[in-house]
Amino acid sequence: MSPAPLATLTALPTYVFAELDRLKGAARARREGAGLAPLLDLGIGSPDQPTAPEIVAAVQAAAADARRHGYPPFRGTPEFLEAAATFVADRFGVTLDPGREVVAVSGSKEGIAQLLAAYCGPGDVVLVPAVYYPVYARAPIAHGAEAYFVPTPAPAFLPDLEAIPADVLARARVLVVNYPNNPTGAICDLTFLARCVDFARRHELLLVSDLAYSELTYDGHVAPSVLELPGAREVAVELHSCSKTFSMAGLRIGFATGNAAALDALLAYRTNVGYGTPWIAQAGGAHALARHRTLVPPTVAEYRRRRDAVYAALAAAGWEATPPRAAMYAWLPVPDGHDDWQWVRTAMDEAGVVVTPGIAFGRGGAGYFRLSFVRPAAELAAAVERLAALVGVGAAR
Question: CA-based, 20 to 30 A from 165: which of 16, 34, 66, 151?
């Protein structure tokens, strides 16, 4: 008999997305057997827009270059680190030392998990918004630490830092924030980030800002970087990703920047468990970041069209909802008369539409569901019409 896994892993709560995958598989089989149309999967936030041909060409060129067939530099290739620093300077007006203040990561999720692993162990606490991307809590729990879920009330979905008990703060090591937010689409301004920096400084915390959706913003909103604030680099690390901005989710490339000592801890962890991020992913990322001014606007315009189609269909059905000003999701209350999982099953079985239950993003997400803008506008609008028909015009709260 093989040994049991570590108790910290068995202590992890059931991964809701695994249950969602099980339900999708069963629903697909039923629909195929009944001769019905395939499921429209709007549950996962995997971009359906193709990676730009010129980024693909940069990846292909790197793959064909024999000099790129060995292990990559641990911190990152000089080209990628410089492109990341230039992007941050151009986009946020922040000057970085690419050799000290940037680390390449294989997507921001991995970078966040590894940074939390470098900082948290048994007895430590990570402060996580009550509505959160799962890795923020699961990574520390997997390493024997605890997650404390900070109240994050609607409609702003900003964590109430003053609600954190003193005994929790005494053991806290890290505070995680994510704006523009997944799953809610909530945004923040520099005033909120300044409060977070001050809070982290007063309580000797590492502030981790997940800025994966920085470029997917609408209606005049421009997402800020915490590093724009004086003194932020004393306490903060920020994670960026090419996955959504450049439709490069499959290449797994992003970067961490900010506090040099924290980045050294991240790098120390990475060098002990792996050999860095592949050359070809960094080549694609460097090309994309260097050309963000031309590559990003078409992607944002397409997501805006999709968002507008979704919310126009909601309005036409009498389903009151306010369009988000960022990210690529609709975050909507579960209709009256349904609980979270019942609504997900009903949407699959009766409308043929896959949505994600809000509980997948923590207890603070209970009573909501997420719909991803990962299909063309017309298909999204049709999906909303089918969902609205299940509850009747005006019946959704």
Answer: 16
Residue 21, token pair as written in the block: 């995958």
Please state, in angstroms and rounded to a whole number, the distance separating the CA atoms of residues 113 and 142.
Answer: 10
pLDDT tens-digit profile of 239-274?
999 999 999 999 999 999 999 999 999 999 999 999
Contacts of 310 (CB under 8 A, 6+ apart): 330, 371, 373, 380, 381, 384
List, edge to edge, every strand of the sheet that includes 172-177.
102-105, 254-258, 236-241, 206-210, 172-177, 125-129, 146-150
> Are 279 and 348 spatial neighbours (Cβ–Cβ below 8 Å)?
no
- Whether residue 330 contacts residue 316, with contact meaning beta carbons closer than 8 Å, is answered with no
pTM of the model: 0.94
Asked whether the CA dihedral 112, 118, 121, 125 is positive or negative, the reply is: negative
Whole-angstrom distance, CA of residue 332 vs CA of residue 396: 9
Q: What is the per-residue pLDDT for 294?
A: 98
Of 205, 177, 193, the closest CA to residue 92 belongs to 193
- Which of 1-10, 28-37, 52-61 has the largest mean confidence? 52-61
Of 300, 291, 301, 296, the C-alpha closest to 87 is 291
